[in-house]
Amino acid sequence: MAKESSFDVVSTPDLSELQNAIDQTRREIATRYDFRGQNASIEWDAARWVIALDAPDGLVMESLQQVLSDKCARRNLSLRFFEFGEPKHRGMDRAQVEVTVKNGIEQAKAKEIQKAMRTQFPKVDVQIQGDALRVSSKSKDDLQLVMQWIKGSDFGIELSFNNFR
Known about the structure:
- By secondary structure, the protein is α+β, with helices and mostly antiparallel strands.
- α1 packs across α2.
- A hairpin with a 4-residue loop joins β2 and β3.
- Strands 2, 3, 4, 5 and 6 form a 5-stranded antiparallel sheet that branches.
C-alpha cells in the first residue's frame, strides 16, 4: 500500500516580517518631516492580533496608514492580512485606528475552500483542522495540481502551504 502524502493550507502572516514592518514604520514616524510634532504612534498587541495607530485626524492618519501599508508590502506581507477599522475620534482632533491582523482560515471560508477542492479534485482528501486545511492524497502529482489550483484561485484571503509530509 502506498504511503499517503499531505500538506496544510494556512493563512498566517510571517510574524517576524510583521514586527519588522511595524518597527520600520516607527522609525519613519520619528524621522519624516510631515510627522514632526504630530505625536503619532503605532503599537502592536500580539494577544489580540491588533495594530493600534494613534495620530491627529485627517492627512496625518492617512499618511500613517499608507506608511504601514508600504512597509508591509515591501516585506512581502500581503495587505489581505490587514483589516483597517474606522477612525475613532478621541477629542483634540486626534483619532485612533485599529488594524486587525487576520490569522487563520475562518470556518465558513474553510468549508467553501473544502467544497471547491472536493468538486475539482475528487481523489484528494480535504479535512478542516482548526484554522487550517489538511490536504492528503496517495499521489504527490495530485497534491502539486491542488497547490497550483489554489495559487491560481482567489478565495479572498491569502493562502500558503506548510507541513509537507
